[in-house]
Design goal:
Blueprint: H1 3-15, E1 23-33, E2 36-44, E3 50-56, H2 65-84, H3 98-107, H4 113-133
Antiparallel strand pairs: 1-2, 2-3
Helix pairs in contact: 2-3, 2-4
Length: 140
């Protein structure tokens, strides 16, 4: 199964957790550790209020705070590194992982990826706090 198909499958599962009027806004595939897939799902209400839920590869909701924070941090770091390296978003989803993040740093020629990541740490902390505060389930 392709990553795109996996993302679609998880989006369908996530839709079952949406509150009335809420929609699945994004599914971010992340591999915080080799072979450990996490799908961060963002939900949005019509008023713009956002909530989160993470799933494992089998479609089971996750509640491990550390795993979810790690996945969110890696996803955010990859987004910032891609922007800094001027990598255009692709039509197909990509898997955010430490290995991919390393490849972005190694491939950066014109951008200071490390500097961009360092300056973005407060924003990443804010994102992970938002995720924890607006998580649909109780985190362990």
């Amino acid at each position: 199964m392709s990553l795109s198909e996996d993302v679609g499958r998880i989006a369908e599962v996530a839709a079952g957790y949406a509150a009335p009027g809420e929609e699945v806004a994004a599914v971010l595939p992340v591999e915080p550790a080799s072979g450990e897939r996490v799908y961060l799902c963002a939900f949005v209400q019509p008023d713009g209020t956002q909530s989160w839920l993470a799933f494992d590869d089998g479609g089971t909701p996750l509640t491990n705070r550390t795993l979810i924070r790690d996945a969110a941090s890696i996803a955010a770091l990859v987004e910032i590194a891609e922007e800094s390296a001027a990598i255009l978003p692709e039509a197909e989803p990509r898997l955010a992982s430490p290995a991919y993040l390393d490849s972005l740093g190694a491939a950066a020629v014109n951008g200071d990826v490390a500097g961009a990541l360092q300056s973005a740490l407060p924003a990443i902390d804010e994102l992970t706090r938002d995720l924890e505060l607006n998580y649909k389930l109780k985190l362990e």
